[in-house]
Design a protein that fits this description.
With about 170 residues, the chain is of the alpha+beta class. It is built from four helices and four strands. The protein starts with 10 loop residues before the first helix and ends with a strand.
């Protein structure tokens, strides 16, 4: 007697597969947040490095560090808008280049009425001498407004290195 070829799975086989998939999901789920934070940290580091590249190029061309107009108050949304406008008009950067995905996600999840930042990275306010930013190699050029990647608040320095801000 010849046996017929099987064309379907048995109930036991389906249950075994479902149990295995369930176990894999349970093992992976706790790591999802850590993996997301790590991936967002890599994106954040890339965007900080992109800001450094754009501003470094303009300094290498002999231009001074951008100076805020006297009518703009440091730490306000008008300052953030000025940096967005300046970099868009002069350096071909977009508002996305100024956004850390972790900071944006954290701000969206806040339920209080705290003001949303237009940019996730604060530029250091150097003087107008073209070489000033490079004369201070440990001074960050741009610093993240809040951490969330598990390694602290990130900054980019004069040599282009992205690292966590060290506590004094």
């Amino acid at each position: 007697m010849k046996s017929q070829p099987r064309g379907a799975f048995t109930l036991v086989e389906l249950l075994v597969v479902m149990v295995i998939v369930g176990i894999l999901i349970v093992l992976t789920f706790p790591n999802i947040t850590a993996l997301r934070n790590k991936a967002e940290g890599v994106v954040c580091m890339g965007r900080l490095r992109g800001l450094w590249t754009a501003f470094s190029t303009t300094l290498n061309d002999g231009n001074p560090w951008p100076q805020l107009p006297t009518n703009i108050t440091v730490g306000t949304q008008s300052e953030q808008q000025w940096w967005l406008d300046y970099s868009s008009n002069n350096l071909n950067l977009t508002s996305n280049d100024w956004q850390c995905p972790t900071v944006v996600r954290n701000q969206r999840s806040q339920t209080n009425t705290q003001q949303i930042s237009l940019i996730s990275y604060l530029p250091t306010l150097f003087d107008s001498k073209p070489l000033s930013p490079k004369n201070w190699p440990r001074m960050p050029w741009f610093t993240e407004i809040q951490g969330g990647h598990g390694s602290g608040i990130l900054s980019v320095r004069a040599d282009g290195s992205v690292c966590p801000v060290q506590d004094p």
